[in-house]
Automatic annotation (TrEMBL):
The gene is birA. NCBIfam families: birA_ligase. It comes from the Bacteria. This is Bifunctional ligase/repressor BirA. InterPro entries: aa-tRNA-synth_II/BPL/LPL (IPR045864), ArsR-like_HTH (IPR011991), Bifunct_BirA (IPR030855), Biotin_CoA_COase_ligase (IPR004408), BPL_C (IPR003142), BPL_LPL_catalytic (IPR004143), HTH_11 (IPR013196), Transcriptional_repressor_C (IPR008988). PROSITE patterns: BPL_LPL_CATALYTIC. Biotin binds at S94, T95, N96, Q118, K189. It comes from Geomonas paludis.
Length: 327
């Protein structure tokens, strides 16, 4: 559980109670005076929390700010590493860029950077990830695994599976994974992942896991000319607005659990779940690598995330990069 100070503990107590929490109870549980409790409540209100004073009973949290906040995300977050530090920004060029810089400056493992909007969101192969404010999740996580650089690509399994699990826990939708780093709902892209690494010859200094998920995006507001592939959002597919706070907390918990498994047992258990959720295993696909294209049957992925595609002559191609489309 992360310690986010008195403000964070107040938010946590509001959540864990049955609605109204008395000032006396807050004072006793926090170990501060009633006057201090009032000052913290006043500060939370100034930060956008709607806290109602109930006469003769205490305080009640009515609503949180519309944007994701460090206090809301950290309060009672049961993780070992992911979320050790959470930084929430109104807008930035790219959360990956911010997280990478922080990691170079020594940010702790598990540091999370979240933005309400991005002006230059980064996608795979230098593409742009559309990042309007107030509707989606744009976040990056710093990890420092003691692994060789060639094994860093295995961390893609973690972030993709974590997003799939979070979608299942917060909606009734069934996500599928498309190699190498996309999440599909009904065949349309709802999330993309982008990992970036800083390493030396024999060791990884850090990896930044970049995660973008279309939660409540109104697809009618996005010009199709800006979309390289069919895209969607959880709202569009499920017809119900997704709680961004609940989704983000679920994602951080799942990512932390999977990272724990990865550190203890290696990539095999996480890769197995990745394959179970794959949208293309056993399917015919067309692989495009610049001017080269070929068609084959997907056999799976190897331990380093390369796609294994069997051609008509029986030869198996190991695909390290490129675009893959179902035939």
């Amino acid at each position: 559980m992360k310690d986010s100070g008195v403000d964070g503990r107040i938010i946590e107590l509001f959540r864990s109670g049955d609605g109204v929490v008395s000032g006396a109870a807050l004072s006793r549980l926090l170990g501060v005076s009633r006057t201090a409790v009032w000052k913290h409540v006043k500060g939370l209100r100034a930060s956008g929390y709607l806290i109602e004073a109930v006469p003769s009973k205490g305080y009640r949290l009515v609503s949180s700010p519309k944007v994701l906040t460090q206090l809301d995300l950290s309060a009672g977050l049961e993780t070992k590493r992911v979320g050790s530090s959470i930084i929430c920004l109104k807008e930035t060029e790219s959360t990956n860029k911010v997280a990478f810089t922080l990691a170079e400056e020594g940010a702790a493992e598990g540091t999370v950077v979240i933005a309400d909007a991005q002006s230059a969101g980064k996608g795979r192969l230098g593409r742009i990830w559309l990042s309007p404010p107030g509707v989606n999740l744009y976040c990056s996580v710093v990890l420092r695994p003691a692994i060789a650089p060639m094994a860093a690509c295995q961390l893609t399994f973690l972030s993709v599976v974590a997003v799939a699990r979070a979608i299942e826990s917060c909606t009734t939708l069934t996500p599928q994974i498309k190699w190498p780093n996309d999440i599909l709902i009904n065949g349309k892209k709802v999330a993309g992942l982008l990992n970036e690494m800083n390493a030396e010859t024999e060791k990884v200094n850090f990896v930044v896991l970049g995660i973008g998920v279309n939660l409540n995006l109104d697809m009618a507001s996005i010009s199709e000319s800006l979309l390289r592939h069919p895209a969607t959002s959880l709202l569009q597919e499920g017809g119900v607005e997704v709680d961004r706070l609940a989704f983000t907390r679920a994602l951080l918990v799942e990512l932390d659990r999977l990272y724990d498994v990865f550190l203890a047992e290696g990539e095999a258990p996480v890769r197995a779940e990745w394959l179970e959720r794959s949208a293309i295993k056993g399917r015919r696909v067309k692989v495009s690598q610049g001017e080269r294209e070929f068609v084959g049957m997907v056999q799976g992925v190897d331990a380093f995330g390369a796609l294994l595609v069997q051609l008509s002559d029986g030869k198996v191609e190991t695909v390290l990069s490129g675009d893959v489309a179902l035939v």
